[in-house]
Amino acid sequence: MAFDFIEQQLQQRKIDGLYRQSQITQGQQGRYIKVAADHYLNFSSNDYLGLAADPTLIKAWQKGAELYGVGSGGSYLVTGYNQAHADLTEQLKSWLGLEAIALFSSGYSANQAIIKLLLDKNALLLQDKLNHASLMEAGSLAQCKMQRFKHNDSAHLQSLLEKQQNPNSLIISEGVFSMDGDQAPVKELLIQSKQHNSWLMIDDAHGLGVLGKDGQGSVVESGIANSELQIYMATFGKALGVGGAFVAGSQALIDYINNFSKPYTYTTGLPPAMAYTIGCAAQMAEIEQWRRDKMFELVSYFKTLAVQHDIQLGESNTAIQPLIIGDSQKALMVAEQLKALGFWVTAIRPPTVPVNTARLRITLTTSHELQDIKQLIAAISTILSEH
Ligand SMILES: *Cc1c(COP(=O)(O)O)cnc(C)c1O
Prior knowledge:
387 residues; alpha/beta; Aspartate Aminotransferase, domain 1; Aspartate Aminotransferase, domain 2; 2 domains; seven-stranded mixed sheet; four-stranded mixed sheet; 42% helix; globular; binds pyridoxal-5'-phosphate
């Protein structure tokens, strides 16, 4: 039968405890999430600064719609590039110290676009093993050669760079790793890329707004200007609480995207009202330092309590705190037990993470309070001691 792999593979996922489906959430999300009729403390969102349902941003979206309408009406090169997009671009350039920017509707599409655009069959792509699926998938579909270096392992990267003879090579790493919360050694990566005449791209989806002076991200936190990288990419759907993404680099790179990137050219521009809202979110992320201060205070409290309760966490100083369980079924079971106690914590399983490293990916946000963390740690401690 044609396409009978569909049923087979779905069945297999169920057998392996790896089957996935969405849960319908109700209303806004923040400190709590409502699923069906129940409220849970929400420890699964990427809304690190608590902006996704902020009243100021809700008003901004309404005002943006009044000013610019709800849809862009076309692709960026036809009629879809509104003053709202131009204003957002200028604002991001000045906040983040970037030369030029291309907006994308999603980070997934931005990553696919860059890899397809720049890497032909003679090029080499070097990726950290734990890079996001959007980068890995694009790399394996592209014509270039792709090699993966061991996670945050500069020596391994060095050995690959020494062997390479490709005219164009690109190193890509996440700034903050999405499933582990640890950070890339950006300074070392930059030195290595320079030594080997390679380009460096950082995907800072989880660093922008969270790390660095005024939330300028992982690269700035490492003491490097964003403009020193050939490519800096980040999304608006995580700490900024909205959605969409950008790729930044030299003016020539962005002109090249405008002229040659199909995922950039042949897609409808972000709704201008949304671009306007992203601008307001970016301004809040830049100016409202208390959001970062509070989030980091919660992170440090969480880590301290975890040590006191003998709970082993991954090595992360960011909002993403992984509790590695190992077995997928067990991770699911722990997540279910937490749910029964009123905590929404997602079990992340292969293939999103390597085999035998199923985990609870706990995320802390500005919206949490100290007592939420205390309750969560007590619940985890009780559940783990029963296993
Ligand atoms: C979420 C994420 C993306 C994709 O961004 P979207 O805007 O959600 O499509 C890309 N890279 C990393 C590291 C991410 O975490």
